[in-house]
Amino acid sequence: MVTNATIETLLNRRSIRKFKDEAIDADTIATLETVAQHAASSQFLNDWSAIRITDPAIKAKVAEFGTQPYIATAPLLYLFIIDEHRNARIAERKGIDPSSDDFNLKTSYRFAQAQNDAVLALHAMETAAFSLGLGCVILGSPLNNINGLIELLNLPEYTYPVLGLAIGKPDQEPALKPRMPRDMQFFENTYPADADDTLATLAGFDAEVHRYYDLRQADRPVDAFSDQIATISRQDVSGKTLLDKAAAQGFQLDK
Q1: What's the average model confidence in pLDDT over 85-105?
Q2: Could you tell me which residues come within 8 angstroms of residue 56 by beta carbon, excluding any fewer than 6 positions away?
Q3: What are phi and psi of 246, to 5 degrees?
Q4: pLDDT tens digit string along 177-205?
Q5: CB distance 6 to 131 below 8 Å
Q6: Element at 78 (helix H, strand E)
Q7: Which domains does the chain possess?
Q8: Judging by DSSP bridges, how do beta strands 76-83 and 159-168 pair with one another?
């Protein structure tokens, strides 16, 4: 592999869940937020926003939603959202009624594109933070209570939570988690027809993942990768519906 500082930063990324009790300075915050704004944006719609959560009470509530207490300890906490509300207000100023069929920024296509843009912005911010020696963890767990988030953060119509990002100075050094062999995840021209051939290196990856978790938490053994997949595939998440809540925010995901 070729390498440079950016590649080394990306190859050494790991989730940090324990932070030093030190505030992040204003210049660093401005840098991270500006980097996020420079991520790719579909059709330059800028259809995402991020809420910087500084109120300890709101942090604690987000941690409660995510059932992860460390969220409340993050010196810097963001919640990235789909934001077509701003564009609806802009369109309204140009004579377009956002509640009418003429306003198409509430359809499933735009919802998906805005979600992609929010994730790209979050990833840019995360990479910048790592490059500055900070630690991060991407948070999907607060979405366990989407209605609660919407109410807590006063999210208006045509907005929707996507992911959180906790940032701070690392107070732990977890080992790098293994990644599956490239030939299991990168294909050429078409998806492989032979699933067994694609999984030829699975046994070796299973052993590597098992070894990683044994070293990380010897007192609490963790299954091999394929066993984890099998276990998770049987978990009932039917109660964690998303699309009905998006509809309540004004999005028409059947269009």
Answers
A1: 93
A2: 72
A3: -65, -40
A4: 889 999 999 999 999 888 788 888 888 98
A5: yes
A6: strand 76-83
A7: 5-173 (3.40.109.10), 182-233 (no CATH)
A8: antiparallel
